[in-house]
Queue: 2 jobs
Job 1
Amino acid sequence: MHTTLLLFLAHIAAAAAAYSARCSSNVVTYWGQNSWGGSHLDQRSNWEKSLASYCQDDTFDVINISFLTNFNLTGLPVLNHAFHCEDKFNKTNTLDCPGIGADVKTCQGRGKKIVLSLGGGNIYTYGLSTAADGQAFADTVWNMFLGGKHTYRPYGNAVLDGVDLDIESGAHDGYPAFINRLREHFKGASKQYIISAAPQCVYPDSNLNSTLSNAWIDNNYVQFYNNPCNLANIDNQWNFDYASWDRLAKANPNTNSKVYVGLPAGSGAAGNGYMSLDTAKSDLTRLHANFSSTFGGIMLWDASWYTNNADYVKGLSKWLKTTLPCNDGTHTTESASLAKSTPPATKTQSATKTSSTKTKTSSTKTKASSSKSKAKASSTKTKTSSSKTKTSSTKPSPTESESPKPTHTK
Ligand SMILES: *[C@@H]1O[C@H](CO)[C@@H](O)[C@H](O)[C@H]1NC(C)=O
Ligand SMILES: *[C@@H]1O[C@H](CO)[C@@H](O)[C@H](O)[C@H]1NC(C)=O
Ligand SMILES: *[C@@H]1O[C@H](CO)[C@@H](O)[C@H](O)[C@H]1NC(C)=O
Ligand SMILES: *[C@@H]1O[C@H](CO)[C@@H](O)[C@H](O)[C@H]1NC(C)=O
Ligand SMILES: CC(=O)N[C@H]1CO[C@H](CO)[C@@H](O)[C@@H]1O
């Protein structure tokens, strides 16, 4: 179907490593749950660093902040950011995180997109059962996190770049209306917002199938791990099924909807699916060759592994950016200059930020990835394709019930 879309004037030169919907080399990660720390409670110096510290080099283009854990229509939504922020607005359960707000602006100033992730697993409760619920909650999210106004804005006047749906439970019939209503708000806005979802590789997704098919989705971050459909099974046609995700993206009302290959960023980051750098490169090359029109890049779970498995994370990101071309045949590093003279791709917004920094992060403390797989494996309830509960448990955070609560640092 054809969609004439919000075409944003804001097509300024794309920074070397900034997000671009035209390219196949975007690298996305997720921040706020400290998955490495969940299995290394006594090694606090290597826990996940501040959000801004993952924005200091070109490794990541999009970072999603997780999670907005509890939401419904009777109360203010509740966030969880592990140990990063634990202060709440008076008389509410909603976090008040001005420090994260400042980091959001720092990251955006460096060309990164910072997206709010809704949902998650574990003990969280949320759900949108009707279209009316979806619309009302979209207004709340717009007002508290995006371009609107609200008494309680957890990140102050920082305006996030979109929402990511990591819906693993709860009523789900209200999500298409949620997305449609958000997009009405986006129409009047001067910036490019992203709507993404992070389904598991098991197709179709048990919670979001109809939303992913019928509502506008920019990026599908498919988790190719934790299940027999993980990328390591690329040659097993009974387990691995990328083609269905490719078809889903092509059928989305957004004619530029993309699939991202979600991979663990370290050997203990998921129950299975972590692979050597060489194998990952080779498999990604094969997928890109067959599915280039929907191939948006990779998603790495999660940011805490950048701190603890840096060679791998940076190596994969750098390789992707220098190897896989953008839709117009350029590479991300070349597109910076090209973007100045080339109009944005037909339907989507091109990357908007100008500043690109190449500063090295100082937080990198590389550790052998092989040393840390064990603890996690036991706490990981690896999902099989028939189960419905999703990967929540592969995203442990020290603030969850299973572990002592670390104190607030900031
Ligand atoms: C709705 O959300 C609020 C805040 O998270 C929570 O306190 C309340 O128990 C929830 N209500 C229901 C019915 O889930
Ligand atoms: C929150 O409550 C504390 C203690 O009652 C008070 O000192 C503080 O000023 C309040 N903050 C706001 C923003 O109302
Ligand atoms: C998934 O959604 C599509 C589009 O609405 C529909 O055709 C398909 O039957 C759904 N699959 C399942 C298993 O519900
Ligand atoms: C790519 O397409 C070729 C030719 O159809 C097929 O043989 C191969 O299995 C595909 N590879 C992947 C990873 O889908
Ligand atoms: C792209 C990306 O990192 N997406 C992640 C956002 O956060 C959810 C959890 O809320 C993850 O499941 C996604 O993988």
Job 2
Amino acid sequence: MALWALGDLHLSFQSDKSMDIFGAVWRDHEKKAAKYCRRLVKPEDTLVLTGDHSWGHSLRECEEDLKYIEALPGRKILLRGNHDHFWDVKKTQRLNDLFGGRLLFLQNNYYAYGDYALVGSKGYCYEGRDTWEHFLKIRDRELERLKTSFEAAKADGFRRFIMFLHYPPTSIGEMESGFTRMAEEYGASKVVYSHCHGQDRFYDSFHGDVRGIGYSLVSGDFLHFKPLRIL
Ligand SMILES: [Fe+2]
Ligand SMILES: [Fe+2]
């Protein structure tokens, strides 16, 4: 049994949003991701996809993209990215009901992996596109959702956590944030995130051990679309 993560597939089977303009690494990236997943992920494994799954704006526009994800091996857990407009955050349970376990949506809940709880939320960081007030509003909402996820796992007796975010845990230049403090407060072993694309952005946030927690970036283009083994 193994735990894998990969983020930002930005699939577009039903739209003409090709990612090829972002560099050679994106050429046929959905084929590369499927090939690596089939090679590495066993049926008994768990694969966490850390958001930005599809360019579709509605569930109907994402059908093919989500079918592609369903066909990947293992138990698939999805996190919400900033581009996942098909996912109404207030209706996550509806998505979980609709996909009946074929896809699992992580929001205000958690999933067990052995004696670990897999917790997470979209997260947020400052990228200079927001007013400060708007940034604080979104950030605080995400911190609240992440706390709900941790607390649900804790209430069920979990004491070991792997924390997933879509956004990097810190804004550029920060050495800590509400998200890293929460990871430390609950004693998360690892923090896994994506969202950062391109060489200029890959090192926006933490890599490796910081104050006893292992941080990993799993953006598809950073990993050349090969899922990273987390446990
Ligand atoms: Fe992305
Ligand atoms: Fe993103």
